[in-house]
Amino acid sequence: MKRLLTLFTAMAMVVLTFATAGFFTLATAPASAGLQFVPLVQVAPDDNTNATGPSDACTSPAPVHTSAFFHCYTPAQMTAAYGVDTLHGEGITGKGQTIVIVDSYGSPTALSDLQFFSTTFGLPQPDLTIFYPNGTPTYSKSMHGIQAGWAEETSLDLQWAHAMAPDAKLVLIAANPAETEGVQGFPSMFKGEQYAIAHYPGSVISQSFAVTEQSFNAAAMQQVARFDQVYQQAVANHVTVPSSPTDVSFTNTPGSRTEPVWNEPFLPAATGGGRSVLYTTPSFQSGISQGLLNGRRGLPDLSWNAAVDGGALVYTSFGGVRVGWHIIGGTSASTPQLAAMVALTNQLADKNHTSHVGYLNPFLYHLPAGDFNDIVPQTFGPGNVTLADNSPFGSGILGMAVTTGYDLATGFGSPVADSFVHDLATALP
Description:
alpha+beta; 429 residues; Rossmann fold; 28% helix; globular; single chain; four-stranded parallel beta sheet; 23 strands
């Protein structure tokens, strides 16, 4: 297997602080559009469309597309890297479970693209239901801008949730219009999530979008209270809601594996993480040094993959974007995969006749350290560059240090899927 770079996202409830630089992010909104939730999708540019050769970093399945620089993951490589293949071998594939994907607009080719992805990689044909809270959006023939970005996000979320939990039912909540911080997108999103919570109790809802807490300004607590109401309903119905703020990078070569904090200066992009400006330290973080948290909620909780150089292969066929395979990263790639880990756990819960995961965070802080691959400073390259915090190169912004054990850049680290899922299932009441 060639060098594989990946990065990892945190899992947390309610509103999350994140910091990440953008690169070729199709969903970037014009300044006149006001503040918006945006998909945290990072698409690798097309850097090589010639015939395949030994120097190519990535060669996709048919229709073949190559990349000279950017490496890529297939589902088989990703599941092997995290030990998810061991779970699949035990028959833990998400059977009987539901993963809900919440995105704006969705995609006009969401189902057909997912079916093509499944056929290509030998996965079961998907069981997909699409719900439009405010009616089906009108898609332009040549998708561009915000709609194209969300369509790419939608394909990524569906395909990689399916890759990790291939027998789980998928539900796409496609909000219309786009999620904004005003009076249009929020009601659509809340309506969709409330529908999912009511109709799919015990499920997991993947949200691959984010916004900084500071973006709400003076209305922060009023707006956040609306989120709290929805997520309290989720807790009551044992629905888990992972979101996407933070990542690390992942290098995997035959016989070795290293995971540094994510920092890809060629993008430029780096992971987020830090202390909440709105929330004080919750009880489940009481065991974390208060000298680190300073009385605040610390993020992230854990990590998973999302690098661009080493991103996930995603198939799209909607208009305006090249038909075929794309290499996609960003925290958008990690959230649906983490959601799938919850679905796998819920399948075990059903077998054990226990409750579903629901509110995940308190369980995470009682799992054995061996359920995570701890992220520590790593040194790479001829220049001996050490990745020891999440500060973007050359930005002058102070980063959060990577340390042994829990830290504010990578949380506890990345789950060791086999033991993580089994131990989480055992912890359920």
